[in-house]
Amino acid sequence: MQFYYDDKMPLRILDEGDFWKQQESEHTVVLRELAPNLETPFVEALMAWEQAFAQTQGLFVRYIEAVVRSGNQVSPEVLHQIRELVMFAMQQSEQFIRLLNQIGESSAPFRNNPVATTVLNHIRRESEYFIGITQALLANQVI
After folding, report:
1. Which among 61, 75, 83, 58 is positioned nearest to 135, based on CA atoms?
2. Which of 89, 102, 70 lies closest to 15, judged by CA?
3. Choosing a second label site near 96 at 20 to 30 A (CA), which of 51, 65, 117, 119?
4. CB count, 10 Å around CB of 102?
């Protein structure tokens, strides 16, 4: 992500969060479909994550709508709330990666299927990418 959006930056950050939370939600479905014999605790965990990501994505959408309605005149209070949401979304992705690691290490349907393992690793890297974007934005105090 580029850092030269100036007054559009809050909207750009929110757009990234919206996109990546939708991706992560879809990834939970991909993993369940990829391993139809996935152990029940992992299926349940992925279903819970699908809902959690959808809820977080909904928050990003609500903030996008609020910023658009404000004409990009975002108050410091709303910017702080956006920053908190971005930090929460990053922590959520970190927790999701822990689940992905656990699936990769403990789930026979993934350990015994090289294609499933490849997809799992790709999904992990995408969540890591989102975390990297988030860390860069927070470090540069863009929000």
Report:
1. 83
2. 89
3. 65
4. 13
Residue found by looking up tokens 């990834």 in the block:
27
Rg of the Cα atoms in the chain: 17
Q: DSSP string spanning 41-108? A: HHHHHHHHHHHHHHHHHHHHHHHHHHHHHTTT---HHHHHHHHHHHHHHHHHHHHHHHHHHHHHHH-H
Q: What is the mean pLDDT of residues 67-73?
A: 86
Query: What is the C-alpha to C-alpha distance for residues 143 and 72, in angstroms, rounded to an integer?
Result: 13
Count Cβ neighbours within 10 Å for each residue of 48-76 and write b for 16 or more, e otherwise: ebbebbeebbebbbebbebbeeeeeebee
Q: Residue 12 has what pLDDT?
A: 86
Q: Rounded to a whole number, what is the largest CA-CA distance in the chain?
A: 53
> What would the two tokens of residue 137 be?
């934005």
* Token pair in block for residue 47: 């279903």
Banded model confidence at residue 100, pLDDT cuts 50, 70, 90: very high
Which pLDDT value is given to residue 79?
Answer: 92
Sign of CA dihedral 122, 141, 143, 3: negative
Q: Report residue 29's pLDDT band, with 50, 70 and 90 as the boundaries.
A: very high
